Amino acid sequence: MKVLVLGPGGREHAIIAALLRDPAVTEVHSAPGNAGIAAVVPTHAIDANSPEEATALAERLDADLIVVGPEAPLVAGVADALREAGFPVFGPNADAAQLEGSKAFAKEIMAEANVPTAMARVAHDAATVRDCLDAFGAPYVVKDDGLAAGKGVVVTQDRDEALAHAQSCFDAGSSVVIEEFLDGPEVSLFVICDGQRTVPLSPAQDFKRIHDDDEGPNTGGMGAYTPLPWLPEDFTEEVVRRVAQPTVDVMADRGTPFVGVLYCGLALTRRGIRVIEFNARFGDPETQAVLARLKTPLGQLLLAAAQGELDGRESLRWDLRTAVDVVMAAENYPGTPRKGDEISGLEEAEALEGVSVMHAGTRRERSLSGTTSVVTSGGRVLAVVALGEDLDDARSRAYKGVEKIDWKGAQYRRDIAQKAAAGQIQVPTL
Predict the structure, then answer these.
(1) Alpha-carbon torsion (172, 177, 182, 186), positive or negative
(2) Fewer Cβ close by (within 10 Å): the C or N end of the chain?
(3) Average pLDDT for residues 213-238, to the nearest whole number?
(4) Is 283 left (phi over 0), alpha (psi -120 to 50) or beta?
């Protein structure tokens, strides 16, 4: 099986690393990839958001499966064009990708599927925003209705900050969704879908704020871990039964079957499970941790989904160890990140037992003398992933890897999975 993976980031690097472990996968290509991906598979410098360029590359490679990584090409209709050209595609079409492309649409689907979620209202002007903020009260939750790469949400006690975020969304031509605040720990669950059937992966928890103790602005995610020892035993089954399968059923009934990953962002509240958001692709940085533990061959699983042939009763096989990943970000992230700084210590980190480094914002640069180096080229630069016997062991290994790597202004959180390792996460009850 020859697989083409579209996308440039850490999620795609993790997908490719897992595909290379599948004995049925004979060849993997990436477009456009990054420095880490280019070290293991051929990369192709195309615009992955262009349906025409993606289709032309797939035809040139004669690919057996195309995996669309990020949300932007999905919403842009890349999967539609590839399917029309006859390729099996893992990733929803543009209509189905509106589950992520529009939070208002996602709320509409949740209501139709009777999926438990936060109360919400859509606002198109400041006056409506003020009314909604007063109605829901603090903490205020204001979400850009469109795609914002994980950074379009503001959760704040400051009403003026909430109003300012809404206005910035309006100024950019978008609307906003105002929600009630959901208490309780958050969980990410990826569910593989073939348009009818669903197969869940291992739940994970990520860390969205830039600084320790969940301080500072939201980011695309600064680290993650899996499995979650504090989860109720029947958690995954309940999410599939109450959230994922009803959503897939409604999408199929509407004539827009969902094929790909339904990312369920969830809160475990005093009133039970509530959906915070849906995404239409693997989440980053949870993917790096989740796929590090997956033993079931990924290529065969994704091809079955793409061809509508999932066995909904399938039980996936997992490494019994715990996975933790720590994201290393560039200076000034999540604002305007500094780029072009040379990264040192990558080989030393990779040499550590149980440690791997997934690249996100990196590129290879050639100096005037002809030598090459890996430099930063984005906000989130790397994710250092470690497998350990338990959370303490995995955390220790991950941070030993982080300590080997350096560049000017590198920043990372030092508390990824710390509370879980200390047994300090509690699921609220009535």
Answers:
(1) negative
(2) C
(3) 95
(4) beta
d(CA 38, CA 36) in angstroms, rounded, equals 5
User: Cβ atoms within 10 A of the Cβ of 402, count?
Assistant: 26
Query: How many C-alpha atoms does 109 have within 13 Å on its Cβ side?
Result: 31
Write the pLDDT tens digit of every residue in 273-320.
Answer: 999 999 999 999 999 999 999 999 999 999 999 999 998 666 899 999
What is the secondary structure of 130-184 as a DSSP string?
HHHHHHH-SSEEEEESS--TT--EEEES-HHHHHHHHHHHHHTT--EEEEPPPPS
CB atoms within 10 A of CB 289: 32
Q: Do 376 and 407 form a contact (C-beta atoms < 8 A)?
A: yes
Dihedral pair phi/psi, residue 154, rounded to 5°: -120, 125
Instruction: Report d(CA 125, CA 191) in Å as an integer.
Output: 35
Rounded Cα gap, residues 124 and 129, in angstroms: 8
pLDDT class of 209 with cuts at 50, 70, 90: very high
Average pLDDT, the chain: 94
The 10s digit of each residue's pLDDT in 158-177 is: 888 888 888 888 888 888 88
Residue-wise pLDDT tens digits, 14-45: 999 999 999 999 999 999 999 999 999 999 99
| pLDDT, position 148 | 61
Cβ neighbours, 10 Å, residue 125: 12
For the packed helices 159-171 and 126-136, what is the interaxial angle rounded to 10 degrees? 150
More reliable by pLDDT, 137 or 393: 393
- What gap in Å lies between CA 176 and CA 108, rounded to an integer? 14
Task: Please classify residue 196 by burial: count the beta carbons closer than 10 Å to its beta carbon, then call 0-12 exposed, 13-18 middle and 19+ buried.
Answer: middle
Kindly calculate the radius of gyration of the chain based on its CA atoms and give it in whole angstroms. 21
Edge-to-edge strand list for the sheet holding 355-359: 205-206, 223-226, 322-329, 380-388, 355-359
Q: Is the pLDDT of residue 358 over 60?
A: yes
E strands, 207-258, where?
209-211, 215-218, 223-226
Label residue 216 exposed, middle or buried (CB < 10 Å: 0-12, 13-18, 19+): middle
